Amino acid sequence: MLETSILKGLTLLSLKNFVKFYLFNHQQPDLFFKLDEFLQDIKAVQPEVEIIYKTEPIEPSPMLKVTNISDDINIYYLAIPKGPEWPPFFQILQAISTKQSFLSPQDRNKIKNVKRPIEVRVFITPQCPFCPLVVNLATQLAVAQPLIQTFVIDGSLYPDVAQQYKITAAPTVVINEDYFLVGNESKEKLIEWILKAGKTMYDPEVLRSLLNQGKADRIVDLCLKEEGYLMSLLSLLKDEKIFTRIGVMRVLEELFDKSPRLREKIMPHLLKMLETSEKRDKDDLLFLLGIIGTPEAIPKLHQIAQTTSPTIREAAVEAIEHIKERYGEFH
Predict the structure, then answer these.
(1) 189 with 207, same domain?
(2) Where a domain ends, among 241, 258, 275?
(3) How many other C-beta atoms are found inside a 10 Å radius of the C-beta of residue 200?
(4) Do residues 124 and 155 make contact, with C-beta atoms less than 8 angstroms apart?
(5) Is 80 exceeded by the pLDDT of residue 8?
(6) Which among 50, 58, 59 has a CA at the least distance from the CA of 22?
(7) Beta strand pairing status for 148-154 and 74-78?
(8) Which of 75, 87, 67 is closest to 129 using CA atoms?
(9) Which domain holds residue 225?
(10) How far apart are CA 246 and CA 211, in angstroms?
(11) Percentage of the chain lying above the pLDDT 90 cut
(12) Which among 267, 214, 209 has a CA at the least distance from the CA of 239?
């Protein structure tokens, strides 16, 4: 049974048929009954609220969707709002019933720039002090922008889902499977990163984030599908963090193994970068060329081998030797 203060607040809402709940059930009957009980408590106060039971298979389940009469608001709960999580849920109902989000006019204007579907998953845990703030913002974004789907997931109730996304802290926000925001940054950067996800292509910052998450395979897939990502990836070869630079090298090596054509295409860009790079970046590039370089790189490497810097000269000579060994050619 909902708390008295919550029941009192519900009576003040003119929800009527502006709010619909879909309850999807395919497995975990105990959890389904808890969600159903939660909805029945709401309906006892707001009898005109519509509850629709869906039995078709859906993963994960059970899952609760809260939306409006037009079904163009996409907010899903893999959670049972209670305690500190109730205020954001209450604001969802208010926003849907008034057909107006609680976002600032500035934020509403920002998310108008979202041009493609965005999935936002907010992982929470009971009594998490920051989770309600992030949930509130993420759900209000879904009220204001139909292209945004927000999923609120209690990791303690759905441990398999939390494990699937390797969640180790709350709140954690996952945007379109690729963007991970943890803790305070979840609220501070949520709109900024949603706008990034809404673009046609990810920028270098997103690729850097994927590298930090150890998702090299995902970057390889992106580059294979859209070659434009290669230029963003190459720019990270000059990143200040060595972890990022090493990550880029590993991605390029795997990528070129899968697509030799891309190796040929990118080689002129790598050689051009050699001309303007600082010593640190030049060392990295020479090492990379030793791994993935083609014979066309050898003349440029010979030029660099004439440098007065012993370390650069040694790196260039070593790169030449590796290329010759790989191709069985001598230039």
Answers:
(1) no
(2) 258
(3) 8
(4) yes
(5) no
(6) 50
(7) parallel
(8) 87
(9) 202-258
(10) 10
(11) 37
(12) 209
